[in-house]
Amino acid sequence: MSFDLKSLELFVRVAALGAIGRAGMEFNLSSTNATHRIKALETDLQVKLLNRTTRAVSLTPDGEIFLDYAKRILNDVEDARTVLSQTTATVSGVVRVTASASLGRTHIVPFVPEFSRLYPDVKLDLNLTDNLVDIVEQGYDLAFRMGELAPSSLLAQKLDDNPVLLVASPDYLARKGYPEHPDDLRNHDCLTLGERHGWHLRGPDGAEHRIRSDFTARSNLGDALVEWAVGGMGIAHAALWHAGPAIEAGHLVPILPGYSVFFDMKMWAVRPPGRLMPLRVKVFLDFMQARFIATNQKQYGAILSELSQYLGK
């Protein structure tokens, strides 16, 4: 194949704009020259990439497939240029990042001013959403996530542990009683994270305990569960970075020593597959990993050793 990067860039812009002439103008090409480049690309690939009318162009099925590959090639070339040309003294560019709203608010947002002072030429585009974002399709450099990662081609890097345990308020336990065995949870009010229906625990002997229970309330926001538990609504799944301060202050009490919550809630950074990590992304990731660890240490470091019997340690 003999097509060049400029032809790939032109094709990507034609797909975005729906017009060969308008795309050609961005590359200082006449409409005729831009059309010749697209036709040469089609000849080289031996497929038709575009449907053409007098008013607009649209992608053929083959064109839609090739568009994904063209974007990846251009992204890889840009990443290679960045890694090869930049030094720590000249880090620049935009870092596009996504994370959940609660994680971003506590672990990312407070530290952006410090990062900006260290790397004034790096711009941050941060999207905080509780929807799972397709970072490849939407062009993100990084996503910060928690919990078990679904199998995918994304590159994952563990940032820190994220211990989870069951907690309730002293007031609730005084009213409802202190559970001594997982089976006792059937008689308690259940505050669950996400779509879970009950409890999944591991005992001191390694045995699993699955206790189905109707939920009193549930939420995909960990802060909500902690606040409800502090208010005496029931027993909650709680990550220590949410519940640590309330436990330390005595507003929440861990329950069921010797039993640990089964599901994994580690903190991760994930990025697109098969790409060199641009220096602007590397410095941001390294900076944030240190802040993630420091934030967790502040939230629950002082009580972590005291809670080992509740965490399967």
TrEMBL record:
SUPFAM superfamilies: Periplasmic binding protein-like II, Winged helix' DNA-binding domain. Pfam families: HTH_1, LysR_substrate. InterPro entries: LysR-type_TF_proteobact-type, LysR_HTH_N, LysR_subst-bd, WH-like_DNA-bd_sf, WH_DNA-bd_sf. One of its GO terms (molecular function) is DNA binding. Belongs to the LysR transcriptional regulatory family. The lineage of its organism: Bacteria, Pseudomonadati, Pseudomonadota, Alphaproteobacteria, Rhodobacterales. This is LysR family transcriptional regulator. Keywords: DNA-binding, Transcription, Transcription regulation. It comes from the Bacteria. PANTHER family: HTH-TYPE TRANSCRIPTIONAL ACTIVATOR TTDR-RELATED, HTH-TYPE TRANSCRIPTIONAL REGULATOR. The keyword Isomerase does not apply. Residues 3-60 form the HTH lysR-type domain.
